[in-house]
Design goal:
Length: 170
């Protein structure tokens, strides 16, 4: 009987000491990369020419048109949203390279998205709307994304504009 009690107590102690990994734990670190001074100057010029007043973090410029009232995502959150993405070419907005299909939403793990989104999305809440102006080093860098039907491709070292409605955070 003593052996049985000792075995049960030891088993309980071992199981209690095991760390349970939960869905709420997040080991992602906030991005620390900052855009180059050349990239920042380019975006500052674009915003000035277009009379856009934007805030800046790590070289990403953003305009929060609605803060939202839900919860803010962390880097391990899944986010549900609608968005459109355009190229910034010179001092104008260029072609549309991606968007959520009409009447649909998209859900992504924030940790799987470009750095510019990782930097800004924790600043807004579900229900919020934001426009992002992202330099190449915090977007797709020197990668090329080919055109697809209805959309332009993304050339290497492109500056991007995203208009996003954050609908939900899980």
């Amino acid at each position: 009987m003593k052996k049985w009690f000792l075995l049960c107590a030891l088993s309980a102690l071992i199981f209690a000491s095991c760390k349970k990994v939960t869905d709420t734990e997040c080991n992602e670190l906030a991005p620390t990369l900052v855009a180059t001074s050349t990239e920042i100057a380019y975006l500052q010029n674009f915003l000035a020419v277009n009379s856009i007043t934007a805030s800046e973090k790590n070289g990403v410029y953003y305009v929060i048109s609605s803060q939202g009232t839900g919860i803010s995502p962390n880097l391990c959150s899944n986010i549900t949203l609608t968005y459109s993405g355009n190229l910034i070419t010179g001092t104008t907005i260029g072609g549309l390279f991606d968007e959520t299909p009409a009447g649909q939403t998209s859900t992504f793990g924030l940790s799987n998205l470009i750095l510019g989104w990782k930097v800004i999305f924790p600043l807004i809440k579900a229900g919020g709307n934001v426009t992002l102006y992202i330099p190449p080093s915090l977007a797709y860098g020197d990668r090329v994304s080919p055109a697809r039907p209805g959309f332009v491709g993304i050339p290497a070292n492109s500056y991007l504009k995203f208009t996003v409605s954050l609908l939900g955070v899980q």
